[in-house]
Amino acid sequence: MSEQNSIRDDFTLIKKGYTYFDNAATSLTPVSVIQRISDYYNCHNGNVSRGAHQLTRNASLYYQDARQKTARFIDAKEDEIIFCRNATEAINLLAQGIDWKAGDNIVTTLVEHHSNYVPWLRVRDRHQVELRIAQPNREGVFDLGDFKKAISDRTKLVTTGQVSNVLGTVNPVREIADLAHNKGAWLLVDAAQSLPHLPIDVDDLGCDFLAGSGHKMLGPTGIGFLFIKKELQYSIQPLAIGGGTIHDVARDRYDLLNSIERFEGGTPHIAGALGLAAAIDYIEKIGWDFICKKDTQLVANLEEGLKKRDYVTIYGPVENSKRVSLVSFNIENCRPHRVASLLDEMGKIMVRSGHHCALPLTKYVLNATAGTVRASLYFYNLSDEIEHFFDIIDFIHTNS
Amino acid sequence: MKKSIAFGNKNIECFAIQLCSYGESGDFEFMPSESLQLKFDEITQQMKEKVPNFRNATERFLMFQLREAQVTLYPSGRMILENVKPAQKQIAMEIGEKILKLADLKSN
Ligand SMILES: Cc1ncc(COP(=O)(O)O)c(C=O)c1O
After folding, report:
1. The pTM is what?
2. Which protein residues touch ligand 1 with a CB less than 6 Å away?
3. Domain A3-21+287-398 belongs to what architecture?
4. How far is CA A262 from the centre of its chain?
5. 20 to 30 A Cα–Cα from A127, which one of A51, A224, A345, B39?
6. DSSP string over A101-159
7. Which residues in chain A are closer than 8 Å to B73, comparing Cβ atoms?
């Protein structure tokens, strides 16, 4: 308990009395991350790789260190990590950077966040590429046979989230990777929701590309990354070229760098990368054992309590579910935004409401046209907070 | 969308923001820039008389229908307006303004 209390002391908004159940939208930021960002601006504010003075040197070293840490966090190599704004930009970088040929196909799923769905619709429209969509059952769970059917010799890319941002379900990425690779296709994993909850090793996962966002894993907003397997980097065109990406420029031609920096045109978000590194330090200090144990305990409490209430509809698998600490639900006769505002007003409890940027899932699988309420927890949450949450939803049900 | 609305003896900046919704029906949040500290024990009766579709009154919120909107009103003057057509912030603002008038003891 005292370990838990000292963890909670690291988060200013918790100390201000917020019960924060909106971690899948963005996690809270520990003071050490905020400190690292302000240290950069106060003590080392120089641009990276541009000059010979001490501030630029320090900024470059810290930035390089942030790349190393991010790589190590997912068991990748330093020169396989491209910093970008967020997971959305990472996915778009790939969508725009692959040399698509008419007749290729892409396999994605109906469960995806818009950021891993809409870019592929655009690729389909621009390049005469076929988009194949694996459909889960009504609980949002996949049968690998659907992927097997969809993946063909013309599949260039299979792309799936590792954890659904609406259902919290964990998809069988390793098995999907094997199916993709058997047909010579690449696999992109949208890890925006899994990175905060599960230790990731890109080799074990079998992915060729992996996208993540810093702000969902205790880091700042405006920084994310794309992992690209080393041997595939020359198959992908950078999204933005110019300053920082160049080996040489002549009057009428340019050569891009051979290194990962060729993908990072312009001044990067240096403070953001340092903040992300501090977030990784923090997660590693807390440790995966603690994080995973808390996750299991919190989601069990949440699911159990919601299941007991017959006025609640839970979305996603109800029995033996393998999900991170995130549950979407609805209360009978009460639209999601009303529920979320009541939780805020009555208990200072922050939950998300709406379609969670996953309209294909909410419309065609869950049939939840007004959206859902989503409670997404993290290791700093408490069982007592969940009990308080239940008291309020009981009150909402009775009075609304 | 932002509008200055008379309440009590001053003008208060109010905001109408569309909440995450799609298609034909949208939900809005209406928010005064400062808490109006509405006294529900004093205004509930007059609201009930003026709003035909009154659903519920507690110390913490009032629920009723006004025009097409299902309204949840909080003591700060914050409101959730359900079922307003999306992209019609103007209508959400009008409904919010009308409710503030009904809740304003000075103007009744
Ligand atoms: C599964 C998933 N993918 C991608 C994203 C996009 O993340 P960002 O907005 O940081 O780009 C999100 C954000 O909620 C998400 O949940």
Report:
1. 0.95
2. A 86-88, 113, 115-116, 161, 165, 190, 192-193, 213, 224, 357
3. Alpha-Beta Complex (3.90)
4. 24
5. A224
6. -TT-EEEEETT--GGGTHHHHHHHHHHT-EEEEE---TTSPPPHHHHHHH--TTEEEEE
7. none
Give tens-digit pLDDT for A83-142. Answer: 999 999 999 999 999 999 999 999 999 999 999 999 999 999 999 999 999 999 988 899
Residues contacting A44, CB < 8 A, separation 6+: A55, A58, A59, A62
Best of B55, B59, B61 to disrupt the A interface (most A CBs within 10 Å) is B61
Q: Please, is A320 exposed, middle or buried when counting C-beta atoms within 10 Å of its C-beta (0-12, 13-18, 19+)?
A: exposed
This model of the complex carries an ipTM of 0.92
User: What is the residue type of A360?
Assistant: P
Architecture of domain B2-103: 2-Layer Sandwich (3.30)
Helices and strands (DSSP H and E) totals, chain A: 14, 15
Q: CATH fold of A33-284, please?
A: Aspartate Aminotransferase; domain 2 (3.40.640)
pLDDT, position A193 = 98
What burial class does residue A156 get, using C-beta atoms within 10 Å of its C-beta: 0-12 exposed, 13-18 middle, 19+ buried? Answer: buried
Give the C-alpha separation, A221 to A14, whole Å.
Answer: 19
> SS3 of A89, please?
helix
What contacts A203, CB < 8 A, 6 or more positions away?
A: A75
Q: How far apart are the first and last CA of chain A?
A: 36
Interface subset of A 171-200, CB within 8 angstroms of B: none
DSSP symbol at A398: H
Q: Is the predicted pLDDT of residue A1 greater than 70, yes or no? A: no
Other beta carbons within 10 Å of A309: 16
